[in-house]
Amino acid sequence: MTRKYLVTGGAGYVGSVVAAHLLERGHRVTVLDDLSTGFAEAVPEGAEFIEGRIQDAGRWLDPTYDGVLHFAAFSQVGESVARPEKYWENNVGGTMALLAAMRSAGVRRLVFSSTAATYGEPESVPITETAPTAPTSPYGASKLAVDHMIGGECAAHGLAAVSLRYFNVAGAYGVLGERHAPESHLIPLVLQVALGRREAISVYGEDYPTPDGTCVRDYIHVADLAEAHLLALDAMTAGEHLICNLGNGNGFSVREVVETVRKVTGHPIPEITAPRRPGDPAVLVASAEAARERLGWTPSRPDLADVVADAWAFARLREEGA
Ligand SMILES: NC(=O)c1ccc[n+]([C@@H]2O[C@H](COP(=O)([O-])OP(=O)(O)OC[C@H]3O[C@@H](n4cnc5c(N)ncnc54)[C@H](O)[C@@H]3O)[C@@H](O)[C@H]2O)c1
């Protein structure tokens, strides 16, 4: 059945890929994005585009919408430490306005982009949804605050909602991929070395208690992530706030990522060893059990080489177009 969805942040990396998946399934999509970190050309063909802020969502949301997929947020951890007020205003204040607009328009279905950063330094891995939440940055804290806000909205006002706590999203979906500025994610940074835009990749810390001494992270292909959003829309129930981690359940070390990029690109990728960065946990790996049980989701692209190959194809496409 065709449904109509508002996709906030649909000109950004993850939002644009999810919007494309919704359109491919025959749904109608309106993207609401202020282009603060997004790109108008990333809005997939076939979507209606409103250039505007979620803080003003009440101007556009109306009862014809079946639900909202909410990606719009600031997500630079370092910036959030330097300018926490920017994160509270946009991520928390913006979502509060969005929820109020949904309430007045009677739009009662929401999928929210939460994050592994809500957990902070894990006590044990793989991380389950019942793990303590102790974010180590204002970014993580702002996302956790929104999770709590959504929980209250479900309990008090019958919203049906799913918070998806992403681990490291990576890869690309055809012409849609990662273009953060500044880029802080490992795979696109290593690919910049392969493209000759950066001389070497810095490896922060070689003395972690991991097999090769470098940090281990859980990389999830953005197209697998998009599938989880479609499943979430069907798995939600009025009055319930479901929280699911989204990761592969597999960890890859920084060295393994760099080595995979070497294999995929054929570039030697020089490394510079740097000291540990404060607040970087040794291992962050998701338990994907809840997503499997509650959403029926299993990642279909768990191989790191596939993730890197898609990201590389996208990076070269952008280089040719640049
Ligand atoms: N990329 C990851 O690895 C990752 C991991 C965990 C969680 N997340 C979450 O997923 C979501 C999407 O991340 P992304 O990597 O695609 O980021 P992104 O910066 O590419 O996309 C965010 C989009 O939201 C828009 N936006 C920001 N504030 C807005 C506002 N007030 N009104 C309207 N539009 C606004 C931006 O212009 C941008 O297009 C974010 O909420 C982020 O916190 C991402």
Description of the structure:
The mean pLDDT is 96. The chain has 322 residues and is an alpha/beta fold. It has a seven-stranded parallel β-sheet, sandwiched between helices. It has helices at residues 13-24, 77-82, 84-105, 138-157, 186-194, 222-235, 254-265, 289-295, 304-321; strands at residues 4-8, 28-33, 48-51, 67-70, 109-115, 160-166, 168-170, 201-204, 216-217, 219-221, 241-246, 252-253, 271-274, 283-284. The structure holds nicotinamide-adenine-dinucleotide. Keywords: Carbohydrate metabolism, Isomerase, NAD. One of its GO terms (molecular function) is UDP-glucose 4-epimerase activity. Pfam families: Epimerase (PF01370). This is UDP-glucose 4-epimerase.
Order of helices and strands: EHEEEHHEHEEHEEEHEEHEEHH
Principal-axis shape: globular
Annotated CATH architecture of the largest domain: 3-Layer(aba) Sandwich
The kinds of small molecule bound in this structure are:
nicotinamide-adenine-dinucleotide
Pathway: Carbohydrate metabolism; galactose metabolism
Protein name: UDP-glucose 4-epimerase
Pfam family, one: Epimerase
Cofactor: NAD(+)
